[in-house]
């Protein structure tokens, strides 16, 4: 028989210990606060003001206007000027700049034939007129920065000759749902809930049980009538509450600081979050039965945390990963939660829309608790 | 199967052929024991002699490799859970929460053992008073002295009024005065009908037990009441005083009739086989060339019993030859 009284005893003891442990208590509040502020401001996939250099071999009014137009896009910022392309390349190697614009001496001749100025398109056979007006050499190692500069490839130059811009009819019409302004924070803030919960929930629980053995309390506990499952439940409940507090901090602050609204129902949010907290806690408990001290528990937490950050779709799109990586990512509760919380917060998804992920997480929780309880019993 | 004989209500613990192996090492080797109600039973032995393993088997924490035990009517190996409610266990090192106060620790124990609310409060009150912890009631356990912590540990172990109390080297970390007080409290518990099993490697502690069993490498060497064991020692104890005791010890250890010798301050305590006639003269004769010595017979103490039973620590051939 599971005794409510004994679970209550463990629970009360955990709360007392938590209250005295200022450091842990502080971490519970400060981790979401600081990381939200940090990531919300810092992570930006929409790149602007890339520092670049300039080699102007033309030195004409036209070349200066071209440079001004490129600067006006705000994608790049000209910070250095070099005399020769060789110097520019050295500067690229030394990482002074991320890219260099090289304007050739025959700029005017190239410009007049360029389709970019809005004149009639040249015949396809005219090889000379097909030449670009200038060249970018780019440090292509960072794909996001390279993509930002590549977006300049076909920029129109009609304004160079004070002509009105041509009306451009796009091939496709784009309607961006859920994040029309393309702000990174809209995607980052709900994802951060998953990352911070993964970190704190797994870390606290795995350390919580190990601490009992490390401080010698386990020897006393196993001589009492307390059952492993009672110990597990009593230890989990306070951290469930902590997890919910953290979610409230992240989403509340996300709304205040980054204007990320919660579009979905709070009830759905609660259900989804509790499922994820449960899955993370049971994973933490399993780790705690493997680790023999708190340091090992930390190391195992990091082992789980890194793939949760990198593979779950928090930073890089899940759909872009190769099949085996997706299979591994699917094992992590964070991956499912990432899809679900973005669903609830941004798209107002209903519970039924996420039945698969929810079932998986519920199964994960039960399985984890079972493994932890069985493993724990063996150590008695 | 014939019905088992009705259990004697006075027998609290009985074991037959109790054995526990850890891999190739045998920690406890075919031990037979009977412990009756209201006695303090001591396991005496050096570190690694199987005392803790023995106690862990009797509490159901470890499953015996062979043999069986019956503790408070519960058969082991079997389902030990019902036993947990009836026994108390005080671990070797302080195992309560250092970041909780004395009262919080006791309250935790009371809840774990399922004491009803009113009784919980009254019982904690009583224990604080009895174990002289009222002044420390709201002190964090980690900031208390070793003696105070030990009182807390005992209070927590007896909180649910167990019939059988296990104490694993209870006083190895406290001063002699605290140890004396601690034992006075144990005798109070015994008066109340509690049976106590204690492990120790202190002779003075073992001497206070009603009965002891001396364990060595998992084997029970001897068992009985300390006075009987001292009286029944199969050796005579000779005390030698002299100048060159270290040299004298070498000479004596080489002799077949000498069981062991140990230097205690300015004296050498020598155990001589009981069948050796006139042991004082024998020892004096052996030491004839080792300078002026005086020999006289003295009463055996528990340490002599221990040394004789374990044959330990004394006659190492390398030392004798050196």
From TrEMBL, chain A:
<protein>
    <recommendedName>
        <fullName>Transport permease protein</fullName>
    </recommendedName>
</protein>
<comment type="similarity">
    <text>Belongs to the ABC-2 integral membrane protein family.</text>
</comment>
<feature type="transmembrane region" description="Helical">
    <location>
        <begin position="188"/>
        <end position="210"/>
    </location>
</feature>
<dbReference type="InterPro" id="IPR051449">
    <property type="entry name" value="ABC-2_transporter_component"/>
</dbReference>
<keyword id="KW-0813">Transport</keyword>
<dbReference type="InterPro" id="IPR000412">
    <property type="entry name" value="ABC_2_transport"/>
</dbReference>
<feature type="domain" description="ABC transmembrane type-2">
    <location>
        <begin position="154"/>
        <end position="379"/>
    </location>
</feature>
<keyword id="KW-1133">Transmembrane helix</keyword>
<keyword id="KW-0812">Transmembrane</keyword>
<dbReference type="InterPro" id="IPR047817">
    <property type="entry name" value="ABC2_TM_bact-type"/>
</dbReference>
<feature type="transmembrane region" description="Helical">
    <location>
        <begin position="300"/>
        <end position="318"/>
    </location>
</feature>
<keyword id="KW-0472">Membrane</keyword>
<feature type="transmembrane region" description="Helical">
    <location>
        <begin position="236"/>
        <end position="258"/>
    </location>
</feature>
<keyword id="KW-1003">Cell membrane</keyword>
<dbReference type="Pfam" id="PF12698">
    <property type="entry name" value="ABC2_membrane_3"/>
</dbReference>
<dbReference type="InterPro" id="IPR013525">
    <property type="entry name" value="ABC2_TM"/>
</dbReference>
<feature type="transmembrane region" description="Helical">
    <location>
        <begin position="264"/>
        <end position="288"/>
    </location>
</feature>
<feature type="transmembrane region" description="Helical">
    <location>
        <begin position="23"/>
        <end position="43"/>
    </location>
</feature>
<feature type="transmembrane region" description="Helical">
    <location>
        <begin position="357"/>
        <end position="376"/>
    </location>
</feature>
TrEMBL record, chain B:
<dbReference type="InterPro" id="IPR003593">
    <property type="entry name" value="AAA+_ATPase"/>
</dbReference>
<dbReference type="InterPro" id="IPR027417">
    <property type="entry name" value="P-loop_NTPase"/>
</dbReference>
<dbReference type="InterPro" id="IPR017871">
    <property type="entry name" value="ABC_transporter-like_CS"/>
</dbReference>
<protein>
    <submittedName>
        <fullName>ABC transporter ATP-binding protein</fullName>
    </submittedName>
</protein>
<feature type="domain" description="ABC transporter">
    <location>
        <begin position="13"/>
        <end position="242"/>
    </location>
</feature>
<dbReference type="Pfam" id="PF00005">
    <property type="entry name" value="ABC_tran"/>
</dbReference>
<dbReference type="GO" id="GO:0005524">
    <property type="term" value="F:ATP binding"/>
</dbReference>
<keyword id="KW-0547">Nucleotide-binding</keyword>
<keyword id="KW-0067">ATP-binding</keyword>
<dbReference type="InterPro" id="IPR003439">
    <property type="entry name" value="ABC_transporter-like_ATP-bd"/>
</dbReference>
């Amino acid at each position: 028989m599971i005794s409510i009284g004994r679970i209550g005893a463990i629970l009360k003891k955990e709360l007392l210990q938590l209250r005295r442990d200022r450091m842990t208590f502080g971490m519970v509040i400060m981790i979401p606060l600081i990381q939200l502020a940090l990531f919300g401001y810092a992570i930006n996939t929409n790149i602007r003001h890339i520092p670049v250099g300039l080699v102007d071999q033309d030195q004409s009014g036209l070349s200066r206007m071209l440079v001004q137009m490129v600067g006006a896009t705000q994608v790049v910022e000209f910070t250095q000027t070099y005399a020769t392309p060789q110097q520019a390349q050295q500067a690229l190697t030394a990482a002074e700049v991320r890219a260099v614009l090289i304007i050739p001496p025959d700029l005017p001749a190239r410009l007049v034939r360029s389709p970019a100025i809005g004149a009639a398109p040249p015949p396809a056979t005219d090889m000379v007129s097909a030449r670009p007006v200038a060249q970018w050499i780019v440090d292509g190692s960072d794909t996001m920065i390279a993509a930002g500069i590549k977006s300049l490839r076909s920029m129109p130059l009609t304004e160079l000759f004070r002509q009105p811009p041509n009306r451009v009819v796009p091939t496709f019409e784009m309607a961006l749902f859920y994040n029309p302004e393309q702000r990174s924070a809209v995607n980052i803030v709900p994802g951060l809930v998953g990352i911070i919960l993964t970190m704190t929930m797994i870390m606290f629980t795995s350390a919580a049980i190990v601490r009992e053995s490390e401080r010698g309390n386990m020897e006393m506990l196993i001589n009492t009538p307390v059952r492993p499952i009672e110990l597990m439940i009593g230890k989990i409940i306070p951290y469930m509450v902590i997890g919910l507090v953290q979610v409230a901090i992240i989403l509340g602050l996300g709304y205040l600081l980054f204007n990320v609204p919660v579009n979905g129902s709070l009830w759905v949010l609660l259900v989804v979050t509790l499922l994820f907290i449960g899955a993370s806690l049971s994973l933490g408990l399993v780790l705690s039965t493997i680790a023999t001290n708190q340091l090992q528990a930390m190391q195992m937490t990091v082992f789980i945390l890194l793939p949760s950050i990198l593979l779950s779709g928090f930073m890089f799109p899940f759909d872009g990963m190769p099949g085996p990586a997706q299979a591994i990512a699917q094992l992590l509760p964070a991956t499912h939660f990432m899809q679900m919380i973005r669903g609830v917060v941004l798209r107002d998804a209903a519970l039924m829309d996420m039945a698969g992920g929810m079932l998986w997480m519920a199964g994960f929780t039960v399985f984890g608790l079972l493994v932890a309880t069985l493993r724990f019993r063996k150590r008695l | 199967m014939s019905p088992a004989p009705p259990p004697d209500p006075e027998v609290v613990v009985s074991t037959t052929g109790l054995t526990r192996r850890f891999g190739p090492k045998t920690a406890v080797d075919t031990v037979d024991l009977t412990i009756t109600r209201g006695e303090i039973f001591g396991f005496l032995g050096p570190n690694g002699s199987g005392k803790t393993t023995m106690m862990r088997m009797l509490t159901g924490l470890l499953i015996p490799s062979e043999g069986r035990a019956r503790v408070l009517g519960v058969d082991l190996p079997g389902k030990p859970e019902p036993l947990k409610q009836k026994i108390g266990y005080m671990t070797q090192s302080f195992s309560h929460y250092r970041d909780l106060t004395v009262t919080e620790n006791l309250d935790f124990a009371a809840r774990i053992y399922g004491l009803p609310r009113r009784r919980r409060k009254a019982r904690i009150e009583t224990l604080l008073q009895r174990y002289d912890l009222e002044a420390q009631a709201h002190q964090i356990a980690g900031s208390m002295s070793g003696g105070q912590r030990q009182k807390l540990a005992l209070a927590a172990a007896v909180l649910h009024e167990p019939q059988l109390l296990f104490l694993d080297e209870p006083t190895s970390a406290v001063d002699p005065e605290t140890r004396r007080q601690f034992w006075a409290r144990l005798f109070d518990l015994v008066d109340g009908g509690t049976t106590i099993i204690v492990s120790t490697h202190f002779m003075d502690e073992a001497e206070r037990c009603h009965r002891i069993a001396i364990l060595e490498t998992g084997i029970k060497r001897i068992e009985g009441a300390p006075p009987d064991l001292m009286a029944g020692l199969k050796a005579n104890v000779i005390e030698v005083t002299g100048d060159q005791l270290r040299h004298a010890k070498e000479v004596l250890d080489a002799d077949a009739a000498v069981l062991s010798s140990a230097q205690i301050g300015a004296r050498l305590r020598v155990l001589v086989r009981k069948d050796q006639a006139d042991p004082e003269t024998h020892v004096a004769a052996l030491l004839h060339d080792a300078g002026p010595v005086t020999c006289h017979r003295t009463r055996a103490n528990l340490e002599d019993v221990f040394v004789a039973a374990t044959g330990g620590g004394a006659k190492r051939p390398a030392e004798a030859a050196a």
